[in-house]
Structures are given as C-alpha cells and as structure tokens.
C-alpha cells in the first residue's frame, strides 16, 4: 500500500514546490488527489509544505486541517501552528485533549514564535484538561525557553520532571545547553553538564556536538576546536556534523585557512557531509576570494547528483572569470547546463555576461 502511495506523495511535493506557488484551491486539490495521510513521512512533508503555502489563506488551511482532525488531531494542531493560526490549534486541542495533542500544541506555539502562549499552555492546560505531560512535553517547553532567552527556567522544569517521575533524556539537557550558550551563560553550561552526569546522561557525541555548535554560533570557534580535541582524547569519535559546526564557525569568523584544514582532516577520516555542507563551504570560500579552494571543494562533490545553489555557483563562476580563469568558468557553466537543463537559460545569461 505504502509503495503505491509514494509516487503520488512525491508528485504532490513537486507540485507544491513550484514557483510561483499554486493558488490555495489548487493546493487543496493537490493534497486531496494524493490522499495525504500523516502516517507517512513523505505525506507529512507534503502537508507541511501545503500549510506553509496556505499561511496567507486561513480558510483553505482550515479546510486542509479539518480533514485530518477526526483521526489525526495532533497533526492538524501542528499545521495550524505552522500557519500561525494558534486559536484554531487551541480549539482543536480542546476538542481532542491527549498527551500527543498537548505536545503538538506546544510545538504549534514554537513554530508560530509565540513563547508566552507556550508557557501558558504548559502551566495551565495539563491540569485543566486532565492530560499527563511526558518527556516530550517537558523537552518542548525547555526548547521554547531556550529560543526565547529564558533558559534559566530549565531548572524549575527539571525539578518538576523529577517530582512527577518523568525521566529526563539527553535532549532535555542538550536543549538547555544550547540555550545557555546562546545567552552566553557559561557557568550554567557547566552546571547542566554536572546535572547530566547525575542523571546518568553522560558526555556522548550528540552532547559534544551541541556544545561545539553552541560555541561556534557565538564566535568562539577556537574554544569549540579545543572541545574537539577533548572529546577525541576521551575516545569519542567526531562525525561529519562536528566538523560541519566547526568549519562554518571558522568560516563566519573569517578564518578560511583553519576551515580548510578541518575540511581536509574530515576527508581523511572518510567523513562525508550533506550537499548543503559542501555548497555552503564553497559560498564562504568564494566570499573570501579563495577560488582555488572553492573549485577544489566543488570538484570533490561534482560527481554526486546534488543540486547546487544557483547563486553560489554563479559566484564561483564570476570569481573565476574575474581572476582571468574564463575557460575554467565556462567549463563549469557547461557542466551546469548539461546536468540541470531546466536552468540552462539562466546559465546562458551568466555566460554571456562573462569577459570574452
């Protein structure tokens, strides 16, 4: 059954991604034709895309969500949140209260950026609607506090978890760590790490990755690199995400030399990132004028069937042309036209603008 539905789901995603976006009534027709159900991952992706496109057409979004409410109320709640229709999300929760619906409502508050409402829901709804919060409930509200600059509320949430017999997970602590780094409360980071040990959530790779990312985001990539060395001494092997955070961190701080040193180290370890990782690195190298390194990174992944960012590749081509490497620039344009014929016209314009 799932195999039969998948082509319809893929087609729906493709149609919903068209630019300009289809009109609201057509979006609803696409979703209905594909018979989308939140039981399938691909269908959830399609529904999420539809909700984001319908955020300016609330009545159409209500039509889409209402078809889900009888059997998939939590997903309808999440879609309302995505479209910024929190009153609808709340009324849907009240018509079908459950732990899953409560978690979906907190998520809806998060995606709509309404952290004050998330706090109100968390504090009053479980008792008012006889719903028992679980680990996901607590982790979601901690994420809300971390995103809204009030991470110190984490301590009272953790106390409440313990009183209610809800076991914290690594995510409970790493979410707080990310928030404290964002707020540059380094003493609190240390306290949370100690609490992790107390709750037997040790220093694992995901924990180190959150710490590395947190430091890189606030321009302290040198300290993040020291953490990399520390984790390796403890026998914890970094993955490509560890290097992803570090390389972006050094790029943003303008240290392209260190970024490329780490990139080569990552390659030696046989670690491979996703397409966004490589093309973002190409972007930063072009921005810094290091077109040799940018071409090297591009060549490393050119054989993969990844769709590069047009503006990044245009930046690389123009940079090469501006460095008297017009033939090389034209060679890349030819590859782009051959691999992505739908953008051939745009690449033709770029080629015509190059120095002859």
From TrEMBL:
**Which InterPro entries does the entry link to?**
PPR_rpt (IPR002885), TPR-like_helical_dom_sf (IPR011990)
Q: What protein am I looking at?
A: Pentacotripeptide-repeat region of PRORP domain-containing protein
Q: Which UniProt keywords apply?
A: Repeat, Transit peptide
- Tell me which Gene3D superfamilies the record gives: Tetratricopeptide repeat domain
A Pfam family annotated for this chain is PPR
Instruction: Report which superkingdom the organism of origin falls in.
Output: Eukaryota
Q: Where are the PPR repeats?
A: 134-168, 204-238, 239-273, 274-308
């Amino acid at each position: 059954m799932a195999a039969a539905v998948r082509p319809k789901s893929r087609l729906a995603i493709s149609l919903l991604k068209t630019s300009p976006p289809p009109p609201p009534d057509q979006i609803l027709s696409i979703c209905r034709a594909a018979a989308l159900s939140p039981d399938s991952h691909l269908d959830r992706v399609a529904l999420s895309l539809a909700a984001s496109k319908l955020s300016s057409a609330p009545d159409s979004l209500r039509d889409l969500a209402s078809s889900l409410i009888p059997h998939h109320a939590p997903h309808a709640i999440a879609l309302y949140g995505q479209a910024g229709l929190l009153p609808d999300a709340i009324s849907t929760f009240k018509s079908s209260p459950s732990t899953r619906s409560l978690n979906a409502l907190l998520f809806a508050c998060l995606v709509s950026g309404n952290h004050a409402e998330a706090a109100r829901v968390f504090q009053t709804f479980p008792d008012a609607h006889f719903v028992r919060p679980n680990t996901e409930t607590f982790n979601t509200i901690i994420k809300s506090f971390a995103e809204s600059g009030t991470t110190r509320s984490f301590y009272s949430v953790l106390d409440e978890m313990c009183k209610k017999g809800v076991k914290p997970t690594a995510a409970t602590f790493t979410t707080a760590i990310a928030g404290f780094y964002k707020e540059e409360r380094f003493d609190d980071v240390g306290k949370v790490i100690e609490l992790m040990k107390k709750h037997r959530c040790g220093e694992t790779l995901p924990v180190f990755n959150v710490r590395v990312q947190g430091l890189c985001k606030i321009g302290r990539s040198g300290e993040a690199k020291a953490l990399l060395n520390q984790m390796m001494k403890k026998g914890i092997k970094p993955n490509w995400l560890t290097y992803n955070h570090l390389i972006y961190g050094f790029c943003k701080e303008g240290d392209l030399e260190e970024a490329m040193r780490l990139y080569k180290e990552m390659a030696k370890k046989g670690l491979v990132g996703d397409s966004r990782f490589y093309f973002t690195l190409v972007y930063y190298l072009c921005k810094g004028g290091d077109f040799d390194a940018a071409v090297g990174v591009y060549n490393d992944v050119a054989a993969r069937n990844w769709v590069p960012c047009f503006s990044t590749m245009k930046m690389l081509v123009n940079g090469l042309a501006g460095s008297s490497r017009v033939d090389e620039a034209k060679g890349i344009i030819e590859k782009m036209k051959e691999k992505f014929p739908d953008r051939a016209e745009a690449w033709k314009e770029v080629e015509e603008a190059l120095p002859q």
